[in-house]
Structure formats: structure tokens, C-alpha cells
Design goal:
Number of strands: 9
Low-confidence stretches: none
Order of helices and strands: EEHHEEEHEHHEEE
Number of helices: 5
Oligomer: single chain
Strand content: 35-45%
Largest sheet: 9 strands, mixed
Shape: globular
Length: 240
């Protein structure tokens, strides 16, 4: 039976850079595979220059579902060297929530990765060291394939966000965007290519390759989510 690891990324801030340089540190709209592979490598205790071990992690199937989009935050930041002061612009996603899922036919490998994520060698963070993962990060391991899991796992957005979208929905349902490795979907649509295949994290030769990705949508029923709970504090103590 194939196993799938489920991870939740949530918190005030997170950042998933794809094309950053010194002055501008951008963020993608959702977690990149290379960033999650870097996180797993840290959990396993890999060093940056252990390129072969890191490249092997690309074999894990990967998918991400956008639970709560969040908004873009630009942080004005100053860095100083011995002779100069630099202004840098650093971008974050604020109040966003994502589910990422990883699977492989070798269930013992999935168990090893899951064990490392629960007891990591190095601290785990969401794109930058200043934004560590929270207590809900590790959602568990399920005996199911990645596609089935990403279609069926319960919605992880904040309560206020679920109510907001449920009230706005005219059809008692919403659609969540998801992005998976292209090989997981057998439709005829062409993939898009993202430059987030981890080739090397070595500081002297950092390199990323291109990865084929396909998008999909997951339907969430919202009929009961938008309703307000009728709360009567006096009824609980016998009042009228």
C-alpha cells in the first residue's frame, strides 16, 4: 500500500523564494518542491554539499493544495557590510495556509522521512529561518496515494476564512487549487514548468532545474460552514 506524508504550512508569515537575488527576495504563491526537499534534507541531517543525497529526494512525488491564499507582504530591510549599507526588499505571504503531500512506492522510505520530520536534526522553517513551522506542521502519514489524499483531505483553512468563503459561495461549494508532479495526472493537457527541482544546495554551486507540473482543482462542500452558531450563554445556567 502506497503511503503519503501530509504537511501543513501555516502561520503569520512564510516565504518560498524562486528567483531571489541579494536586493530582492521574492516568494512564490505556494511552497516549492525544492524548498520542501531542503526542509526534508535538514530533517534527515543532510549537509548542503551532500548533493547526491539531496537529488535523490526529487524522486518523492509532490503535491501542494492551497487552503488559504493569504496576502503579499513587502518588508523593507537594511543590510550592512563593512563599507556600505544595502536596502533589500523581502516578500512574504501572510496568513496563508497550505497542505503539501509527499509519497513514494517505497513505503519504508516514506516511514524514514516521516520519522525525521517528527524528530528533525536541524530546525525546520517555512522558506526562511525567521519563520519556523508550527505545532500543526506534521499532519501524519496515510495509507493512500497522493492524488486520492489531496482530493479527500479535510479543508485546513482558518475558521473565519472558511465561513467567509462559504457565505460568498452561491453553490454551497468552493474549489481549491492544487499543483502536483505532472506524472501523477494522466490527462492530455500540457504541463507547465517550474524551476524548483533541487539540483544542488551547495553554497558554491547552488542550482535548480525545471520540473513539469500540472494544476487541478479540489471541490469542497460548504453547505454547513457558513452558518452562524446560535449561542445563548444564559441558557447554560438555566436563564430565560
Amino acid at each position: 500500500m502506497m503511503k503519503t506524508i501530509i504537511l501543513k504550512f501555516s502561520g503569520p508569515l512564510q516565504s518560498w523564494g524562486t528567483g531571489s537575488n541579494f536586493e530582492t527576495r521574492d516568494t512564490a504563491r505556494y511552497p516549492t518542491k525544492s524548498a520542501v526537499i531542503g526542509l526534508i534534507g535538514g530533517a534527515l541531517g543532510y549537509r548542503r554539499d551532500e548533493t547526491e543525497k539531496i537529488q535523490e529526494l526529487n524522486e518523492l512525488s509532490f503535491g501542494v493544495r492551497i487552503e488559504q491564499r493569504g496576502t503579499l507582504l513587502k518588508d523593507y530591510h537594511i543590510a550592512r557590510s563593512a563599507n556600505q549599507t544595502y536596502v533589500t526588499n523581502r516578500y512574504y505571504l501572510q496568513d496563508a495556509v497550505f497542505l503539501t503531500m509527499l509519497s513514494h512506492e517505497d513505503s519504508s522510505w516514506i516511514d524514514t522521512v516521516a520519522k525525521a520530520l517528527v524528530s528533525p536534526v536541524f530546525p525546520l522553517y517555512m522558506g526562511r529561518r525567521s519563520v519556523p513551522v508550527d505545532s500543526e506542521f506534521f499532519q501524519g502519514v496515510v495509507e493512500n496515494d497522493l492524488l486520492s489524499t489531496i482530493k479527500s483531505y479535510h479543508w485546513q483553512a482558518s475558521g473565519w476564512y472558511q465561513k467567509k468563503l462559504s457565505r460568498e459561495s452561491k453553490l454551497n461549494r468552493i474549489m481549491l487549487d492544487a499543483y502536483v508532479d505532472a506524472g501523477l495526472l494522466d490527462d492530455s493537457l500540457p504541463p507547465m514548468f517550474q524551476r524548483d527541482r533541487a539540483e544542488s544546495f551547495d553554497l558554491m554551486n547552488r542550482n535548480h532545474g525545471f520540473r513539469p507540473v500540472k494544476s487541478m482543482q479540489v471541490e469542497i462542500q460548504t453547505a454547513e460552514m457558513g452558518k452562524d452558531t446560535e449561542h445563548d450563554a444564559f441558557q447554560g445556567i438555566g436563564g430565560v
